[in-house]
Automatic annotation (TrEMBL):
InterPro entries: Tim23, Tim23-like. Belongs to the Tim17/Tim22/Tim23 family. Keywords: Membrane, Mitochondrion, Mitochondrion inner membrane, Protein transport, Translocation, Transmembrane, Transmembrane helix, Transport. Component of the TIM23 complex, at least composed of TIM23, TIM17, TIM50 and TIM21. One of its GO terms (biological process) is protein import into mitochondrial matrix. It comes from Arxiozyma heterogenica. It is found in: Mitochondrion inner membrane. Essential component of the TIM23 complex, a complex that mediates the translocation of transit peptide-containing proteins across the mitochondrial inner membrane. This is Mitochondrial import inner membrane translocase subunit TIM23. One of its GO terms (cellular component) is TIM23 mitochondrial import inner membrane translocase complex.
Length: 204
């Protein structure tokens, strides 16, 4: 009996000794989160000053003369990434389709279905990556040269693009001799002229 009485007295002392201020604070925070005082946080957190949003200057579009294209661009880095990626995928697709046609034509007579599929896949994987990689290197070199010319001249126009294309073609075939360099330079310059004409007509 005396043991039960002492346990009850101990429990009553614990209940009466509970800090009601802490319970009130928790209840207030749960019902009204805005009542939380951020100044009580660690000063290194800096949350007592509120949340500040960063203003990224990289989000501003390029203001260079003539730099407005079909796709909004923030500068040479966007042109380099988007241009190279798009041309690479285009070359990969065209090369893969060309490999598909060549693979169908190269199927041996009376070949089994497994051999037919293997022949087609071999031609696709041979032509697709080759043309895609070549197109990607050309686009990467062109964008670097074109951006350098634009930075030196302070503007972007058709003349600069054609010159960049001619230089890109010459550099791409520089190890093959003067004649291949001339052909590649002329083809790249012509392709750039056609692209600039299409872009200018679409932009109006």
């Amino acid at each position: 009996m005396s043991l039960m009485t002492s346990n009850n007295e101990h429990n009553n002392s614990i209940n009466h000794g509970t800090d009601t201020t802490q319970l009130t604070s928790v209840t207030t925070l749960l019902t009204n989160p805005m009542a939380f005082d951020t100044a009580r946080l660690h000063p290194l957190a800096g949350l007592d000053k509120g949340v500040e949003y960063m203003d990224l200057e990289d989000e501003q579009l390029s203001t260079m003369e003539g730099s407005q294209g079909l796709i909004p661009s923030r500068g040479w880095s966007d042109d380099l990434c988007y241009g190279t990626g798009a041309v690479y995928l285009l070359g990969l697709g065209i090369g893969g389709f060309s490999g598909l046609i060549q693979g169908i034509k190269a199927i041996p007579p009376n070949a089994s279905s497994k051999l037919q599929l293997n022949t087609i896949l071999n031609n696709i994987t041979k032509r697709g990556p080759f043309l895609g990689n070549s197109a990607g290197v050309l686009a990467l070199s062109y964008n670097i040269i074109n951006s350098s010319i634009d930075a030196l001249r302070g503007k972007h126009d058709t003349v600069g693009s054609i010159v960049a294309g001619a230089l890109t073609g010459a550099i791409f075939k520089s190890s093959k001799g003067l004649k291949p360099m001339g052909y590649a330079s002329g083809l790249m310059a012509g392709a750039c002229a056609i692209w600039c004409g299409i872009k200018n007509s679409l932009l109006g």
